[in-house]
Amino acid sequence: MGNPRSEAVTPDGAADFVPARGGVAALRRAAEGCRGCPLFQDATQTVFGAGPEHARTVVVGEQPGDQEDREGEPFVGPAGRLLRKALADAEIDEQEVYFTNAVKHFKFAPVKAGGKRRIHKAPSLREMSACRPWLDAELRRVDPELVLALGGTAGKSLLGNSFKVTESRGVLLYLPAGTLPATAQSRAGDGARGLVATVHPSAVLRATDRKEAYRGLVTDLGVAARFLT
């Protein structure tokens, strides 16, 4: 069950671990030793973002899942595979996408004491805030044209606690140029970075009508695709 560690958590979250210089590779190396919140104590490893360093699109999910935690790569489990299919169906080139999460360690609970199966638990506001410097740094290094926020946690990390995916999904929003994360919708302008929110693909997998939920996801991604053309 995980990889328990006893190192102390830093009071300022991840901020003390983020290097001032270097690209995404430097961020990834530094994140391996992050002790910004208690989640590192039980997770197998840090799961940092992956993809082209100057991708046109950054996909932001909630946190790594069980398979991602074991493999050390984002979006490699069932939800990730469904997302990649949806991106292709929406005609968004996966080779121009950087995949990451708002929280870089897997938060989970065992199904039963001593069991091997681990069930995802949503990160708390404190854990999201502690990990936010990593997401800020990734976005600044990659400097994408568009950000895709998958689900409520990702949306709140980018747009604040009032964000609701049910109210904002499939709508083209904008992040202020040079200011990440945004706290409110801004007017489009020169250099504005687009943002489109949609449901997390794991919600599609849980849906009663999976086909309809998948169509909704692809429709939302289509808004992003049109922005990129």
The CATH topology corresponds to Uracil-DNA Glycosylase, subunit E
Low-confidence stretches: 181-190
Total strand segments: 7
Record the strand order, biggest sheet: 2-1-5-7-6
Q: Fraction of residues in helices?
A: 25-40%
* H and E string: HEHHEEEHEHHEEHH
Give me the Rg, rounded.
Answer: 17 Å
Give average pLDDT, whole number.
88
Strand content: 5-15%
Largest sheet: 5 strands, mixed
Principal-axes geometry comes out as globular
Under CATH at level 1, the class stands as Alpha Beta
Question: Mind explaining what this structure looks like?
Answer:
- There is one protein chain.
- With 229 residues, the chain is of the alpha/beta class.
- It has one domain: Uracil-DNA Glycosylase, subunit E.
- 36% of the residues lie in helices and 14% in strands.
- It has helices at 24-31, 66-71, 78-89, 125-142, 151-159, 165-168, 201-206, 210-228; strands spanning 57-61, 97-101, 108-110, 118-120, 146-150, 172-175, 193-198.
- It is globular.
- Residues 181-190 have low confidence and may be disordered.
Supply the key terms:
8 helices, globular, Uracil-DNA Glycosylase, subunit E, 5-stranded mixed β-sheet, 7 strands, 229 residues, two-stranded antiparallel ribbon, alpha/beta
List the helices and strands and how they pair.
Blueprint (H helix, E strand, L loop, with lengths): L23 H8 L25 E5 L4 H6 L6 H12 L7 E5 L6 E3 L7 E3 L4 H18 L3 E5 H9 L5 H4 L3 E4 L17 E6 L2 H6 L3 H19 L1
Parallel strand pairs: 1-2, 1-5, 5-7
Antiparallel strand pairs: 3-4, 6-7
